[in-house]
Amino acid sequence: MMRARKFSLAGIAVGALSLTVATSVPMAYGHGYTNAPISRAKHCANGTVQNCGQIQWEPQSTEGPKGFPNGGPADGTLCSAGLAQFDQLNDQRGGAWPATQLVSGQNYTFRWRLTAAHSTTDFKYYITKPGWNQNARLTRSALELTPFLTVPMNGARPANDVAHTGRVPARTGRHMILAVWTIADTANAFYQCSDVRF
User: Fold this and answer.
1) What are the φ/ψ torsions at residue 105 (nearest 5 degrees)?
2) Same domain, 76 and 172
3) Same-domain pairing of 79 and 22
4) Looking at residue 112, which CATH number applies to its domain?
């Protein structure tokens, strides 16, 4: 009887430990994606783009080191936030990613869906230069490294649905917008790439 009780208590302890580990793992994942313009990650989650790999189940998880453009993910891995499991986001696919139509030089409302809000430094939006190489993975040299829109938060925690209105630069043809959400109380930021057409 005593032996059976010891096994039973051991089983409860192991079960409790497993539950703790299982419920704490998601906290390590990222927590937000852009849905206007729709990001590559969200296109994958929506099923409008196929063969995306793991990102289709967690479009909010492109979380990497903050400090862009001086720091952050390496060139060629910006869209995946430097995470190998999301490398499909870096593939230009010969221009096959769906592109949101924008009007050159006009105001546009950028939208994020945050599945878990964090104390925030800021949101910044970058765009590719005229004449950028559309067939190569996104690099700093392809981007205007001065953001065209910066929304400071000074440590505040944003709502789950975030909207920022700003003027998009004058452009023609196909471009990419890199949106960066920098977290104030961790060493990370969230990176979202959106394909757009002017």
Assistant:
1) 75, 5
2) yes
3) no
4) 2.70.50.50
C-beta of residue 120 within 8 angstroms of C-beta of residue 153: yes
**Pair (156, 115) in one structural domain:** yes
Whether residues 4 and 77 share a domain: the answer is: no
CB-based contact 119:157 (threshold 8 Å): yes
Distance CA 188, CA 191 (A): 10
Residue linked to tokens 């790999």:
53
Range of the domain at 180: 31-197
Whether residue 109 sits in one domain with residue 95: yes
E strand or H helix at 191: strand 188-197
- Quick check: bond before 169 cis, omega within 30? no
Average pLDDT on 136-154 reads 98
CB 147 within 8 A of CB 188: no
Look at residue 18 and tell me whether its pLDDT is greater than 90.
no
| pTM confidence score | 0.85
One domain for residues 54 and 14:
no
Note the pLDDT tens digit of each residue in 76-106. 999 999 999 999 999 999 999 999 999 999 9
CA 160 to chain centre: 15
Strand bridging mode 100-101 / 188-197: parallel
Distance CA 109, CA 106 (A): 10
Identify the residue whose tokens are 């936030």: 81
CA distance 184 to 154: 8
Structure tokens at 139: 């690099």
